[in-house]
Specification:
Elements lengths: L8 E2 L5 E2 L8 E7 L8 H12 L4 E7 L11 H12 L18 H9 L15 E4 L6 E4 L9 H7 L1
């Protein structure tokens, strides 16, 4: 049986990997963009990561250019932007699609497990967030307008 931790993803170096290294951790998986009105959420995501990482929590960023072409850079440009402007130290994976026929398998899985409003599977915009329990079974979805700091109580409950 394939679990969330076994789904292939592409690391920042371009090599195929999985989320197995994060097995047993609470994960916050986010489709990100560096030129979006929600881009300042990187600061809040990093704060969550710094606050909870020693307790078994990780933020995983997946850049996406599907919404208004708001992440046009290459991997090095994206990582540099995130680090220089927001001090991001959590893992940033390769740019992906989250919707459509080329949607990354991870995001297809997350959308199936935690549909949006009225059962919608599609992701509406950048910075949609999925909080995944340490066992990978419970997935909670948050829209782009939900600020990272608003997730602190839910993260605490998972830890």
């Amino acid at each position: 049986m394939t679990t969330l931790h076994d789904i292939p993803v592409t690391g920042k170096d371009g090599a195929e990997t999985t989320l197995a290294d994060h097995r047993g951790k609470v994960m916050l998986i986010v489709n990100t963009a560096s030129k979006c009105g929600f881009t300042p959420q990187f600061e809040g995501l990093e704060k969550l990561y710094q606050t909870y990482r020693d307790r078994g929590f990780v933020v995983l960023g997946f850049p996406c250019n599907q919404f208004g072409k708001q992440d046009p850079g290459d991997q090095a440009e994206i990582e540099q932007f995130c680090q220089v402007n927001y001090g991001v130290s959590f893992p940033i994976y390769r740019k992906i699609d989250v919707n459509g026929r080329h949607a990354a398998p991870l995001f297809s899985h997350l959308k199936d497990r935690a549909p949006g409003l009225l059962g919608s599977k599609g992701i509406k915009w950048n910075f949609t967030k999925f909080l995944v329990s340490a066992d990978g079974e419970k997935v909670t979805r948050y829209g782009p307008r939900t600020r990272p700091e608003a997730l602190a109580d839910d993260i605490e409950q998972q830890l």
